[in-house]
Specification:
binds adenosine-3'-5'-diphosphate; alpha/beta; two-stranded antiparallel sheet; 14 helices; P-loop_NTPase; transferase; catecholamine metabolism; globular
Length: 296
């Protein structure tokens, strides 16, 4: 689309205590009333935690053998619809979920745990939550805001970082999100809480853990095939995973599959920003057993 046809960037506002934009509240009642099925798998994350990576892994685990044409012809955001999303003149995430022909259905959501539609709990669905350390998440989110017209304008890095710390970004506070889901894990046994840093460290091991959670047992050969297919370089050049088919994203400004590293924050944070961040982090993250690694 030429730039004139794109709508202005959405504005942030407070929605039940969480910063949101219209893209994620306009279809609220329909999203809340979604009918989950017992075999649905919800992939829940705070933005930029590795959602696309884990979505591709799950899609390959479930459908890589039975319908390989799926991976080569349908973009990831159609195979694993983003339930919360609603944009003008496009099918809503909720509609895409309703129309999914697969079983199980793989469904993506960035909702904080208190906003998850009740049907997922009633049906006792399996949920895969992916978390990523706050500093790398902030950096990745900043670059995502630069390239995606459906995100508020991120401004300069230094001011974006302050907004991130305050939770004034889409889907609200990272701190509340990762903690809320971590607490949920203590009572919902069908929640697998995984970390981006672990995936980077040993993708094969994390695929094995996912499989034992999901009750899958791919052959060693199949598991290796998947591990190779989801390596950073392969997903970056794969048009069905790199978001090159989405007009609202300007890959010339920044790639969606951008760097894929643990510790890229060191290239963005000044020493003073890092110290301020760490001090605030300690306060917000005290009284939790949840631990992150900012380097490996
Ligand atoms: P960076 O911006 O730090 O590179 P999400 O899918 O939740 O929006 O997360 C996007 C982040 O995951 C981006 O981080 C992207 O590069 C990274 N990512 C996507 N696929 C990856 C892969 N196969 N290996 C490593 N990182 C990956």
């Amino acid at each position: 689309l030429p730039w004139m046809e794109l709508p202005p960037r959405p504005k942030l506002f407070d929605f039940h205590g969480v910063s949101m934009t219209k893209c994620f509240t306009d279809n609220w009642d329909n999203v809340q009333n979604v009918k989950a099925r017992p075999d649905d798998i919800l992939i829940a994350t705070y933005p930029k935690a590795g959602t696309t990576w884990v979505s591709q892994i799950l899609d390959l685990l479930y459908f890589g053998q039975t319908s390989p044409e799926r991976q080569s012809s349908i973009p990831i955001h159609m195979r694993v619809p983003f339930l919360d999303l609603c944009r003008p003149s496009q099918p809503t995430g909720k509609d895409l979920v309703d129309q999914l022909p697969t079983s199980p259905r793989l469904i993506k959501s960035h909702l904080p745990v208190q906003f998850v539609p009740k049907s997922f709990w009633e049906q006792n669905c399996r949920i895969v939550y992916v978390a990523r350390n706050a500093k790398d998440t902030a950096v990745s989110y900043f670059h995502f805001g630069r390239m995606n017209m459906f995100q508020p304008e991120p401004g300069e890095w230094s001011s974006f970082l302050q907004h991130f710390i305050q939770g004034e970004v889409v889907f609200g506070s990272w701190y509340d999100h990762v903690r809320g889901w971590w607490e949920k894990k203590q009572t919902h046994s069908k929640l697998h809480y995984m970390f981006y840093e672990d995936l980077i460290e040993d993708t094969g091991r994390e695929i094995d853990r996912l499989c034992s959670f999901l009750g899958l047992s791919p052959s060693a050969e199949e598991r290796e095939r998947i591990r190779g297919a989801v390596q950073f370089d392969n997903m970056k050049k794969n048009k069905m995973t790199n978001y090159s088919t989405v007009p609202s994203m300007d890959l010339k400004v920044s790639s969606f599959i951008r760097k894929g590293k643990v510790g890229d924050w060191k290239n963005h944070f000044t020493v003073a920003q890092s110290e301020q961040f760490d001090e605030d982090y300690k306060k917000k993250m005290k009284n939790t057993t949840l631990q992150f690694r900012t380097e490996i």
